[in-house]
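Dear support,

Our group has been running a series of protein-ligand predictions, and this particular one with adenosine-5'-tetraphosphate is the one our PI (initials K.S.) wants archived with full inputs and outputs. We had some confusion internally about which version of the output was final, so please treat the block below as the authoritative record. The input we submitted was:
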Amino acid sequence: MPTQRVFSGIQPSGIPQLGNYLGAIRHWVRLQSDYSCLFCLVDMHAITVWQNPEELRHHTLTQAAVLLASGIDAQKHILFNQSAVFAHARLGWIFNCITRLGWLNRMTQFKDKTGKDRENYSSGLYVYPNLMAADILAYKATHVPVGEDQKQHLELTNDIAQKFNHDYSVAFFPQVKPLIPPTAARIMSLRDGTKKMSKSDPSSQSRIDLTDDADTIRLKIRRAKTDTAPLPDHSNDLTERPEAKNLVSIYAALTNTTIDHVLETYQGKGFSVFKEDLTEVVINAIVPIGQEAIRLLKNETYLLEILRNGADRASTLANPVVSEVEKIVGFLS
Ligand code: AQP
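Confirmed final output from the archive:
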């Protein structure tokens, strides 16, 4: 088993969507051959915004089923839900006491999420990056796969590790390296090409859920917002056409090619032809995963057992690290 350790997290804040798959899950599947991996369903992060308890439970199980159906190997690697491993909360609190308010105030994701209404958001959302640092450092993970939007949080993780080491005069936490996927696709909403596709978007028409069936995918792509112009011959000419660019990016990501290569085939054509072909590409990639996930979801006991086993193995790794941290801090052991 490789010695370099990867920690990856996904929030069970909804049914995983195509953006989660193209931006994260399919890269995680590939990482399994080179790293020892922890895949965490970060339910504690999810409740930083309100989650209906029944739905949270269902989404956590669905997330587990989708990851397994996508090719995550829960025997060779570790798949678990965050709240089942107490080390995250223990270390998260210590990091709340390490992180400076000024550092958190600079986090752009918090500002983007809360906008002008920040007074009404939870304090959990504000300290989210501290818990994320604990997720990673409780395992002394060496690498974390990150999209553009998480880079700043990973830098903060390294700042927290460094400050802890400095404040307690130890060389305890290592610096963590980002793993940027070679083709980092940022998938946008099907209704608004300037907004990220999100599992918690109130409009189900804005995204493709990984459990959607072929007819639903067909309908969502048919209704996806576009414009009237034919497709251009170069990606530069898509800059002002976010919806068109998004659909071409999805096609390129799923066929492992570039936007320009897709445009070589479709330049001059209208969206009716392109959307039909895109629909087939999406159905071929997603529907088998969805069908397998739905099959797995019928056996809740099996999924719970996988997560319980994962949590036990994760605790075995994290508990000694966090106990050592607590000793360094001066807690009685
Ligand atoms: N639209 C996207 N395009 C590319 N990558 C994406 N990711 C999410 N949406 C897209 C990547 O998926 C990983 C896990 O995401 P997460 O669930 O932990 O958080 P998120 O980014 O907040 O995902 P959502 O779907 O937008 O959830 P909600 O609606 O709850 O906020 C991350 O690596 C992320 O980059």
